[in-house]
Amino acid sequence: MAEKRTLLIPSLLDDWFPLLQYAFASEQWDPVLLTEDDPQLAELGLRHFHNELCYPVFLVAGQVLSALRSGNYDSARTGVLFGQAGDECRGSCGIRLMRRVLDGLGYEQVALLSLNVRGIDRDTGLPITPSMVRRALAAAVWGDTLALLRNQTRPYEAVPGTAEALWRQWMDTLGQDLAQDRNLFRRELLARCREMAASFRAVETVPRPAQKVAVVGEIYTKYCRLGNWNLERYLAAEPCEIAVGGITWYALYYMDTHMLKGSAPLRRVYRLLFRYLSGIQREMIAILREAGYTALPPLPELKRQAEGYAPLRVTVADGWLIAAEINGWARLGYRKVLCIQPFACLPGHIFGKGQYAALQRKLPQARLVSVDYDASTGPGTVQSRIRMLLDERLEDPHG
């Protein structure tokens, strides 16, 4: 049997990649998560990429180049996984630009693998197998459950650090499940969700004032601490009860908006996956609510609620999902909303940021503040906008 090769995975889904990495493990590849989160990595990326590209491209490139320069990896036995949305996302061309950079720096042997479901860059595409899909779906549901439980427990824990420690403990347990292909079918998967909810419910808490703040926006800055400069840690220290929509909502949004695109077989696959995952998501949400926790409605219901608030025909990038999440979280009492995106993300600025003014008029009981992240922006600029949101007193909508 050939020796396994190392598959480097740049940061993106911080609360999910510790589990999702098992979806990419195979007889050929051994996944390794890149976790370096120094914002100066963007400067390394900027040395080799045109500055008109989006901020996440510089960060991903910086992480990859830093890892290869460390000497910890044999370039002849190393690959890099690139996620590609495949629509109008400017980052979708990053893998081809990265190939040119690596070749110029003497890393011709490093393989670049594209993770996408649109059939782009087929010569570098990572084969998607049924076992990979099964593990990825379980990791997404478990990751959503754990992130929501931790974020809503942490502000009120009697012993600081308890929720984070419990999150890590569950990550280890569920990682073993995924590594051994155990508890991945619907009944066992949801049983794990009930166990998680019960364990967080048992954490000792104390009454404590905490602001409820929702975070929405472009996928990289929304889910990656490197892209949002450790926004979660900053908000948690305030303290805030943080609400972030899970990756199952994003996956279902992507399926919903792409079910009419592509070949007939691909559309059938999307419909089947949508039906299966939306059913599991509905049961996951019911488990969380029964345990006293809050979650956005299932994606189909969230979309119905967004009628009149979101342009539902806009399916580019995060499209109507951003407005739907803002409306959904505001309905659940998270009336302060941080809308974040990376600078130079054209779809994010047009189809995301372009909705905020209209949404603010339609949701007068909420307050929306937009924050851009970029290599040329100082932390003071970003933090001042966040403080503007946190320091504002909102009127009680109930009088």
Polypeptide structure, described:
There is one protein chain. Helix 4 links the parallel strand 3 and strand 4 (111-115). Among the domains are: 5-124, 3-Layer(aba) Sandwich (Rossmann fold); 210-245 and 296-399, Rossmann fold (3-Layer(aba) Sandwich), CATH 3.40.50. Strands 2-1-3-4 form a four-stranded parallel β-sheet, covered by helices on one side. The protein has helices at 17-20, 41-46, 55-69, 94-104, 130-153, 162-179, 186-201, 219-223, 225-228, 231-236, 247-258, 264-290, 299-305, 319-331, 346-352, 356-362, 379-390; strands at residues 5-9, 29-33, 78-83, 111-115, 211-217, 240-244, 336-342, 367-373. The protein has 399 residues and is an alpha/beta fold.
In the CATH scheme, the class of one domain would be: Alpha Beta
Average pLDDT: 91
Strand order of the largest sheet: 2-1-3-4
Question: How many E-type strands?
Answer: 8
Q: Regions with pLDDT < 50 over 5+ consecutive residues?
A: none
Helix percent reads 40-55%
Main beta-sheet strand count, sense and barrel state: 4 strands, parallel
Backbone structural class: alpha/beta
Note the total helix count. 17
The CATH architecture of one domain: 3-Layer(aba) Sandwich
Rg value = 21 Å
Overall geometry comes to globular
